[in-house]
Design brief:
The two termini are 27 Å apart. Helix 10 packs across helix 11. It contains 16 helices and no strands. It has two domains: 12-113, no CATH class; 186-366, Orthogonal Bundle (MetI-like fold), CATH 1.10.3720. By secondary structure, the protein is mostly helical.
Length: 403
């Protein structure tokens, strides 16, 4: 692939301070890890500044300078971090080399509109850096937990063997404990029982509510919508407290009047409570899908003699199905990950997977929690990927996207 044609080379007064700031940002993390953040900032800024001056003023050879940057940074990474440092150093060496020439050659303007002012260009990239920083801030705890779940020791920290990438430092024993321990398996089965049933109830009631609220003749639509999505807005501890008093009365009536088993009543209370938490997600996603729905299709079906039930399942449901499934996935995730409400409403017989994780943190520090957290992250990523695919399919069905 041919190199991008330079738009216009930028002055060193712009290039040098910018690359020095980038080097200082990296040096801050490395220096903090080694006990001196300020020294890390100074060393990082000076190192990248020297790289920029050498590459631009001395070498003037982009291909050669790239390999020099990779080798130098990999060597420094080995000094400070061993084998993992070599990998990270090589990556950052390539990244800083790319950044220096991307800035110096003016390549950052290659895909921007030519009439943008320098201030608009600055805001364009500053906004992306800000969004990227927020993303890194949110995703870093997950990236830390996942490798820790393979720790061969019963620690919540990286061992020296793990940092050296020694195979002896890694093990699947925490995953084996999850799949063989009766307590973990019982809580996992409870989650697999409660979450799907709560999801079915949430989808059924939430879809009907969204369709009803989409009708123009419904009075007080905004007030009703606010009430229905309030479990999503009200602090969870308040909702859990209210559900405790409400469902305790229902449970006493079911046990005393109907004579139902106490364990069964406990499952019913937890399922209904989780369904209440999932309904707002279904209402919001289905309502968003109904925004582009053509009501003339239902009127045409009615003119052809179809009753409301047939019209719903044959005409309306296929078109809003992506939104319904998306809402169901959100409701499932909400129920599967919820711990506060089940602590108030449920009992030991209904201990779910998040409850068991909470217990593992408070009563017995079990590294199996890390393995379970990794499994839940993988499940959540799979479900959210499904949601995104369904969203795109919904847009295609409504003609909103040419893809």
């Amino acid at each position: 692939m041919a190199a991008l044609t330079p738009i216009s080379r930028k002055p060193m007064s712009l290039v040098l301070p910018t690359v020095a700031a980038a080097g200082g940002a990296l040096g801050l993390f490395v220096g903090t890890a080694n006990g001196s953040g300020l020294m890390g900032v100074l060393v990082g800024a000076c190192l990248v500044l020297a790289m920029a001056l050498t590459f631009i003023k001395v070498l003037n050879n982009e291909g050669l300078s790239k390999w020099i940057a990779i080798v130098v940074m990999a060597a420094l990474g080995f000094i400070f971090g061993g084998t993992p440092g070599v990998i990270l150093g090589a990556i950052f060496g390539w990244l800083f080399h790319w950044f220096i020439y991307w800035l110096y050659e003016g390549r950052y303007r290659a895909r921007l509109l030519p009439y943008l002012t320098p201030r608009q260009v600055l805001w364009h990239y500053a906004f992306r850096v800000l969004c990227g920083s927020i993303f890194v801030f949110l995703i870093t705890p997950i990236l830390v937990v996942m490798p820790l779940s393979f720790n061969a020791q019963d620690f919540f920290t990286f061992t020296p063997e793990m940092l050296r990438l020694d195979p002896e430092g890694y093990s699947l024993k925490h995953y084996r404990d999850f799949f063989t321990n009766n307590e973990w398996q019982r809580s996992f089965k409870n989650s697999l029982i409660i979450a799907p049933i709560a999801t079915v109830i949430s989808v059924s009631l939430g879809t009907l509510a969204a369709i009803g609220l989409s009708q123009n003749h419904v009075p007080f639509k905004r007030a009703i919508m606010a009430i229905l999505i309030s479990p999503m807005i009200v602090p969870l501890i308040i909702s859990a407290t209210g559900m405790f008093f409400f469902y305790s009365q229902i449970g006493n009536w079911m046990e005393g009047t109907l004579g139902l088993n106490k364990t069964f009543v406990g499952y019913v209370k937890v399922v209904l409570a989780h369904a209440v938490l999932g309904i707002p997600f279904v209402i919001i996603t289905v309502t968003a899908t109904l925004v582009g729905f053509d009501n003339s299709l239902t009127r045409a079906a009615a003119n052809m003699g179809a009753n409301p039930v047939t019209t719903f399942f044959k005409v309306q449901m296929p078109l809003i199905l992506p939104g319904v499934i998306s809402g169901g996935l959100f409701a499932f995730i909400t129920s599967f990950d919820e711990v506060v409400v089940v602590l108030f409403v449920g009992s030991a017989s209904q201990k779910t997977l998040p409850w068991q994780m909470f217990t593992g943190l408070r009563e017995q520090i079990s590294p199996t929690i890390l393995a379970v957290a990794t499994i839940l992250v993988v499940i959540s990523i799979a479900l959210l990927t499904t949601v995104e695919l369904l969203r795109r399919r919904s847009e295609r069905l409504r003609g909103m996207s040419p893809g």
